[in-house]
Amino acid sequence: MTHRIVIVGGGAGGLELATRLGKTLGKRGSANITLVDTNLTHIWKPLLHEVAAGSLNTSEDELNYVAQAKWNHFQFQLGRMSGLDRATKQIQLAATLDEDGRELLPARTLGYDTLVIAVGSNTNDFGTLGAAQNCLFLDTRKQAERFHQQLLNHYLRAHAGDNANQKISVAIVGAGATGVELAAELHHAAHELAAYGLDRIKPQDMHITLIEAGPRVLPALPERISVPVHKTLEKLGVTVMTNAAVSEVTAESLKTSNGEVIEASLKVWAAGIRAPAFLKDIDGLETNRINQLLVRPTLQTTLDDDIFAFGDCAACPQPGSDRNVPPRAQAAHQQASLLAKGLKARLEGKPLPTYAYRDYGSLVSLSSFSAVGNLMGNLTGSVMLEGWLARMFYVSLYRMHQMALYGTFRTLMLMLGSRIGRGTEPRLKLH
């Protein structure tokens, strides 16, 4: 019987792994590769802040799993993993419902010989009172599109009303990369919406407040990056609040632990991560306090050699450190590359390679206004980048992701099509 490799989660890491394994093991018939995801299409998660602001039209940048599977010799199953039976080597998939609540696909099981879990992470609201009920999140395409629609609705209501110079207030909790990039992208969107005639809300009347519990923005990155980013945000008119932990969220405002009240008509929670709740101690596997599966440097779970996990849903130790690998896109990409080689070696009876995180630097986009970051390498050390050059490197990260999925020629065609389309489409999604 052909070896069955099941990959759960079609994010950047899981989809890249399925594509790589399909092109090698799947194409040769050495293994049956199956990718499982709750959606039919993939969008690169670091782009969701652009979807929320309307700068990115998802219908143009999404990837269809069914087509990708056909082109790259793996299979795709629509479904959401809900359970695991390690004794029989089966995962349970919950029933899939359509938009009207009718059952589209029944609950079912899927057998595996090797299981790879790459389900990513969700935003962690830390149990903050009212956050789940009154904040929007940016974990999925649907959530990002919901935010964009609510933002656009404010502008459309103002455009149809009689009162001039109306205002809109947006509060973003969490000044990590997502929060910072969303704040800049919203400022850009305010100018674009006014340019298209929705100018009852002037750009200066979109009040954006970025709230961070820690002492500075971008707390996970070096201070030499966070300082210029903070200054740029303030130049754009964004109110940046640090050392301000949110203690409660209501329908109209947010309250901080020191008693400040921030009024906001749109509230986004972008602070912290945790793995999906269904992973917590799933069939006896070890997990940590944020539901991440504990894995060894081989990316095998600590209690089951046949189950691997990587990306944001895995707690992988860093050699020579008491910290785990950070939940970043570059880590998921590195781990997918390692597993593509490792699973092939495993089928051949060879030892598994071990993972050691390599930090190649960080880049943060401030929409069309600027970009800031640093690149790290063995020869160059750490090089600080800012402005146009940093922006070009930032864009190249997405192109590298596309090349891993589509190959060089198709990626070049996508770039050409995007360039041609700029002259025939609005610069902002207006629906």
UniProtKB/TrEMBL annotation:
<dbReference type="InterPro" id="IPR051169">
    <property type="entry name" value="NADH-Q_oxidoreductase"/>
</dbReference>
<feature type="domain" description="FAD/NAD(P)-binding">
    <location>
        <begin position="4"/>
        <end position="336"/>
    </location>
</feature>
<dbReference type="InterPro" id="IPR023753">
    <property type="entry name" value="FAD/NAD-binding_dom"/>
</dbReference>
<dbReference type="Pfam" id="PF07992">
    <property type="entry name" value="Pyr_redox_2"/>
</dbReference>
<keyword id="KW-0274">FAD</keyword>
<dbReference type="GO" id="GO:0019646">
    <property type="term" value="P:aerobic electron transport chain"/>
</dbReference>
<dbReference type="InterPro" id="IPR036188">
    <property type="entry name" value="FAD/NAD-bd_sf"/>
</dbReference>
<dbReference type="GO" id="GO:0003955">
    <property type="term" value="F:NAD(P)H dehydrogenase (quinone) activity"/>
</dbReference>
<keyword id="KW-0560">Oxidoreductase</keyword>
<comment type="similarity">
    <text>Belongs to the NADH dehydrogenase family.</text>
</comment>
<protein>
    <submittedName>
        <fullName>NAD(P)/FAD-dependent oxidoreductase</fullName>
    </submittedName>
</protein>
<keyword id="KW-0285">Flavoprotein</keyword>
